[in-house]
Design a protein that fits this description.
By secondary structure, the protein is an alpha/beta fold. The chain has a single domain, classed as Spore Coat Polysaccharide Biosynthesis Protein SpsA, Chain A, CATH 3.90.550.10. Helices cover 36% and strands 16% of the residues. It is built from nine helices and ten strands. Strand 2, helix 1 and strand 3 form a beta-alpha-beta unit. The longest helix has 19 residues.
Length: 276
């Protein structure tokens, strides 16, 4: 179908169904030369999505020479974020858009995006510009050095938070400490297990049954993936300029339940080799 300018509409993808399992690239049926697939999960992010896509495309073009894709996975936002992203995709061949109408939740949205991804490297970044887009270049540089997983961390040199309250800092640190106690061989492998900004090699999670709970997908990836070399880069978490925070007490409870689920499932210890 073409619009008034004669431009063909890009596909609007429906979410895959079934288990949350990412296929190896050779079985994905893409035959693509895409190297990086970066998923952007969204819910009511219409005010931020255009700026984020523009910045990411400008930044990633130089190191990847077009061999990347951005995948917006929208949970049927009332503000129709998916519709705006789909309109942007008409003029941006790097952009693909998925609208989910039967599932909700950040972690599953990320995996559904990875399931249609064509890249050897899979990633995730928030849509609200709290994750600085320029940090994606640092993540890519670490992947290029051979890391299996690269995490953007607020808790190493060069990292931090902008204007968090004492209570929010306490809750974040407390959640990390609890995670280290409950699941030390998973949570203890990174300085910022609560991070939602990272790149991972597809082969590290291909054919792994992922069962995330809540919105902290990184601990699920580390807990169930085949990951040897983990690297981290520092970033400063930014405050929102548009829209409202989606952090709720339910998410902290889901985080605790997720820790216990992984603890019960950890019959075999994960790989512990780490290079910083």
């Amino acid at each position: 179908m073409k619009d008034a300018r004669g431009t063909s509409d890009p596909p609007l993808y429906a979410a895959p169904s079934g288990p949350l399992r990412v296929s190896p690239k050779e079985m994905s049926g893409t035959g693509s030369d895409v190297r990086l697939s970066l998923v952007i999960p969204t819910f009511n992010e219409r005010q931020n999505i255009e700026a984020l896509i523009s910045q990411l495309c400008s930044l990633l073009e130089a190191p990847l020479a077009g061999a990347f894709e951005l995948i917006v996975v929208d949970d049927d936002s009332p503000d129709e974020t998916w519709r705006l992203a789909h309109e942007l995709a008409r003029d941006n061949p790097r952009l693909r858009v998925m609208r989910r109408t039967t599932e909700k939740g950040l972690s599953s949205a990320v995996i559904r995006g990875w399931q249609i991804a064509r890249g050897d490297i899979l990633g995730v970044i928030d849509a609200d510009l709290q994750h600085p887009p320029e940090t994606a270049l640092k993540l890519w540089n670490e992947i290029a050095q051979g890391a299996d997983l690269v995490v953007a961390s607020r808790n190493i040199k060069g990292g931090g938070v902008s204007d968090w309250s004492i209570i929010r800092r306490f809750l974040s640190r407390g959640a990390q400490l609890l995670g280290t106690i409950v699941l030390p061989k998973v949570v203890g492998r990174v300085t910022d297990p609560m991070s939602g900004f990272f790149f991972i090699r597809r082969q590290s999670i291909a054919d792994v049954a992922l069962k995330p709970l809540g919105y902290k997908i990184l601990i699920e990836v580390i807990g169930r993936g085949r990951i040897k070399w983990i690297s981290e880069v520092g970033y400063v978490f930014q405050e929102r300029t548009e829209g409202g925070s989606k952090v709720t007490w339910k998410q902290y409870i889901d985080y605790l339940r997720h820790l216990m689920r992984l603890r019960l499932a950890s019959g075999a210890s994960p790989q512990t080799d780490q290079h910083e």
